[in-house]
Amino acid sequence: MSKKLLDLSIEKLVYGGYGFTLHEGKAYFVRYTAPKELVRAEIIKEKRDYSEATAKEIIVPSNSRREAKCIYYGYCGGCQLQHIDYDQQVSAKEEILIESLERIGKVKDINLSESLKSPSEFNYRIRVQFKVSEKKLGFFAWDSTEVVDVDECPVLHEKLNKMIPKLKELVREVMDIKEIHLLYSPFRDEYLCKLISTTSLDRNALRRIKEEFLGEKVAGVGSYARMRHGLHGRSYVGRDHTYIKVNDMIFRVSNDSFLQSNYTLWGEMIKAVTEDVTFRKALDIHCGIGFFTIPLAKKGHFIEGSDINLKSIKDAEYNRTLNGIDNVSFVRASAYYQLKSRLGEIIDLVVLDPPRAGLEHGETELLLELKPEKIIYISCNPSTLARDIGILTREKYDLIYTRVIDLFPQSYHIESVSFLKLKE
Question: In the 8-state DSSP scheme, what is residue 265?
Fold first, then answer.
């Protein structure tokens, strides 16, 4: 039975990588389209208020349309925007960020600063999570758990692509591996590896895997299980950390710590967060390995970083010493506990870098009670950012400016940095 086809004129891109249009009063979200083009779309999900579709034919192409670089594009779900010129990708993300702040946050008169574009729109990722199924190694298809088998990925660092043949040999040999996570350090030219499997791999098995399949450039490899709340480490061989260099700073990064994937923007992102900042006392919530805390320490008297991840805090403490910084401390704590423990103190600056869910229940209220003079909000989700900034600006703050930091070219993901100041 053939699926329904419609000719649709695409108005704009929306979050998720879809082209959007209204047709006969109904919303349509169309994959692999660009603004201002006419497409013949096949309906793949029909709902009462909206439908989801995919472009089957481009009748009138957009001026921004281009040929996708990846041979798996359209099958693999890792990228959604390769068919659009890079400048237009960034422009679309700017529009989505502004629209989210206006519609969800009810923020008016938004000052959008110049976006920070990625110096490389391909080969920028130094972290990857490969999915494994039926001896296939690759990534999930769009909105599916079907694994698209790949031999290379154009957004990955070339050294990660060179590991794919070895990994494919491994998954043919070790049948119960479900995911393989790699972190590559350009500074050390080495990798860290996580193997997520249904059964535990003991240290002898990991040694064999490291020696026979992965090679000497893999500094450490661990066996993990995927649990409800994340990954659980079971055994490990080799070194569990590597090092990266950003500007004049060196950071230790453990296999279980968080690190932004786009290494080509590390230095500029730190500059975007720290420039024109001064303070007497500051808090860095969700500080990770001290990626922003340590360079921020050079701009003020004292800063305290906090994170719930113990590995990240241990890395941050090590990095403080490694970089000769003595006016910073780190504590393992949730964002809620850290904010609550500082009530009554005079805090000039709070830096927020929450997960996709944004500020959790009670954290916004504590932030308003703490009342720092300045807030820097680093976000990876424009919807939750808009929700949180909407509350802050209705209560006590002005949004001075926001800007896109394009950490994820070719994908719909939007990273941003927003600066807020206490109302006078």
Answer: G
Contact yes or no for 197/182 (Cβ under 8 A)? no
**Which domains are assigned to the chain?**
5-65 (2.40.50.140), 91-119+263-422 (3.40.50.150), 127-242 (2.40.50.1070)
From 70, 76, 287, 380, active-site residue: 380
pLDDT at 3 over 90: no
Of 40, 64, 63, the C-alpha closest to 53 is 40
Instruction: Record the tokens describing residue 198, joined without a space.
Output: 């249904």
pLDDT in tens, 201-236: 999 999 999 999 999 999 999 999 998 888 999 999
Q: What DSSP designation does 264 have?
A: G
Residue 366: how many other CB atoms lie within 10 Å: 18
For this structure, is 287 an active site residue? no
Q: pLDDT tens digits for 291-325?
A: 999 999 999 999 999 999 999 999 999 999 999 99
Residues whose CB is less than 8 angstroms from the CB of residue 276 and which lie 6 or more positions away in sequence, other chains included? none
Tokens of 407: 């950490």
Three-class SS state of 386: helix
Burial class (CB in 10 A: 0-12, 13-18, 19+), 223: buried
